[in-house]
Amino acid sequence: MPHEQALLLTISWAVGLGLAAQLVAHRLRIPAIVLLLVTGVLAGPSVLGWVHPEYMGEGLGVLVKLAVAVILFEGALSLRLEDLRRAASEVRGLITTGVVVTWVLATLAAYALAGFTWPLAILFGSLMTVTGPTVVQPLLRRVRVPRKLKAILEGEAILVDPVGAVLAVAVMDVVLGLSGAHPLTWYGAVWAYFGRLLTGGAVGAVGALLLSRLFRRHDWVPLELRNLVALAGVWVAFAAAEALLPEAGLMAAVAMGLVFQRSEVPEERRLRHFKEQLTVLGISVLFILLAADLPLAVVREAGWPAVWTALVLALVVRPLAVAAATWRSPLSWREKFFVAWIGPRGIVAASVASLFALALRGAGIPGGDALLAAVFVTIFVTVTLAGLTAPWVARLLGLTRRTGKLAILVGAGPLARKVGQLMKEHGRQVVLIDRNQSLVWAARRAGLEAVLGNALEEDTLASVGADEAETLLAATTNAEVNVLAVAIAREEFHTARAYPVVDAKGVSAEMVEQIGGQIAFGRPIDIRDWEHALNYEPVVTLEWPVPEGFAGGAVGQLELPDFLLPLVRLRGEEAEIVHAAQTWSRGERVVFVARAPEDEVRAALDALAQG
């Protein structure tokens, strides 16, 4: 087969198989990287022979660097700086004390368990100091934990990548220097680390300032070219840092993302969305290519010692490093345990290890392939362990409770204010959004946080924390607007618990099902009529304990009188908005509002209890 055709097939297979693995992982709700690694090994020369990374030559290393630049830039761009400031002490401890402890203990584990020589073990230990936003961020989208925990894990993953990777590169320089591959001095070794961080940080900051200044001039960069100009800017800054000092580009990408998001750039959310898509593509292709480039015989040779080393890193080294880094932190033991449990390695460890294997091979130093195999085994073990067990561990530790979680209410009319007050009374953080200034003022007078804005604009939702919101209720008087707001929340912010209030006129149940939502309060209602009643009529509010043996089915199937409207379900300390697919069971309480005398309401609830 001609080389050109073989290269074309390799790239095509890598893209196709990578995205197919992403789709299957999404369907099965498992970490995508696990499938990507398995698929890459199976598609590589050792098994099926569909993907041949060796045909790419030095181009594979260039592709890896460019993709990692986009991945790190997108991760830094998505990191909420306000949350990072609240978690600053914990993140600082993890990327300083945590890195040192991990390096030392991982080195000892590699020497004792994997049988590495000391130089190789030290190099492996430095590689294990990174975690990776490409694994941590998707995982945290599936596990709803408190915002501070999320900020700690994301902040560590994004900032430790350049810190750990540059450390590994500096250690590599020392290993090569001691082997005689190139001259080595003590000040050269120090500059190899701190020089790369400083150079990369400066280049990234300057690049971000220039790019943001360019974007604020609407007449210079048309909207349709902004995403591509930003991509070019990231790669130019990355290349400039690399030209000044090899491997300084990692820090440049992170610094550029952090500085750029502080610059109040118009249409930043669209740019972030574009970068997220590029990140998914980059991760998919890279893991297929890098896994295919790993000879299966080398993995077999690494065998159980590599597996035991990976397990020790996950179950012993990571907890000790987190304990040392957070021993003065006010985090509870449950929160520290969860942080210690989430330490998967990602694309940066894989890509740097691949480059190291080539460098060691070129310098005539044995062990490069064994190092690469141990790194890939560690990635597979840590990603599988964290990805498959994180939701269960979070629930076991009580970190997924909805108490204190953010609920966004679209609309600030009487109905939304009533729901907001109920949610707030039971420990939920609530913010209302409305375009009507008088309704916003009314909500604030009622003691609720309210924002003037259009909830159909992504920037407005993002500004009130939609990325972190656990619940969204769209309760304006316009049912079409409510459905559209829920669609945006679900599609753009992955808000699973998003419910529209609808009427029986313009919006059908099928329309709500198409966006994957559920009708709020269980049924269509006359929104304006209820708004008027809450404003001007005597409305009864009461709490109904669900009786033993209640088997009424989903709320949407209950036959409730028109004058009775269930708003909030209380389960222990948790408050959740009632919706059509919700079911009630003994021990729970439901808060109703009713436009009828209390004795008539009680009679209706007694009839409901009896089925």
UniProtKB/TrEMBL annotation:
Spell out the protein name for this chain: Sodium/hydrogen exchanger
Localization of this protein = Cell membrane
Which SUPFAM superfamilies does the UniProt entry name for this protein? NAD(P)-binding Rossmann-fold domains (SSF51735)
The RCK N-terminal domain is annotated at: 408-497
The yes or no answer to whether the keyword Transmembrane helix is present is yes
Can you name the source organism? Oceanithermus profundus (strain DSM 14977 / NBRC 100410 / VKM B-2274 / 506)
Record-linked InterPro entries: Cation/H_exchanger_TM, Na+/solute_symporter_sf, NAD(P)-bd_dom_sf, RCK_N
Query: In terms of domain of life, where is this protein from?
Result: Bacteria
